[in-house]
Recover the amino acids of this structure.
């Protein structure tokens, strides 16, 4: 009886299906500027401020920009004030013009969100244009080789 059990175990172990190693193809990560520009386009297409949802428009706009800055410059932004973000960005390679674009976006968003400011339609459009310009001018440039390896060219 014991010999039969041992033979059955041996046969089972030989004939059982072998575990195939799972090979996952690494999909290159989408660059932060591409994600941000796509989200900005979606926000523009929603036409929130034209539908009297100015506060929601600026909340989403500042969230997109904060997320981009966090991914691009590896600085935590979502639990920080605008001044704290700029203090963190002091030692980065952002040009003065781009810092000013960022400041205009975030300060106007803060005024709308917290001080119940009612910006003019031109100000709302300018914030979107500034956001697109900021992302476009601060993006890292990715070469085809570095995309394959997951590295960036600075």
């Amino acid at each position: 009886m014991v010999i039969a059990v041992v033979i059955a175990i041996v046969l089972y172990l030989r004939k059982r299906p072998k575990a195939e190693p799972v090979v996952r193809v690494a999909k290159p990560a989408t660059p932060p500027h591409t994600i941000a520009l796509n989200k900005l386009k979606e926000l523009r297409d929603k036409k929130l401020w034209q539908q009297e949802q100015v506060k929601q428009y600026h909340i989403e706009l500042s969230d997109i920009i904060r997320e981009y800055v966090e991914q691009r410059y590896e600085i935590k932004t979502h639990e920080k004030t605008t001044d704290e973000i700029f203090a963190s960005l002091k030692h980065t390679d952002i040009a003065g013009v781009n810092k000013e674009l960022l400041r205009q976006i975030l300060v106007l968003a803060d005024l709308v969100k917290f001080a119940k400011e009612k910006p003019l339609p031109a100000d709302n459009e300018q914030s979107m244009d500034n956001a697109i310009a900021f992302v476009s001018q601060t993006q890292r440039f990715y070469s085809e080789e570095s995309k394959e390896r997951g590295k960036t060219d600075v």
About this structure: The chain has seven helices and no strands.
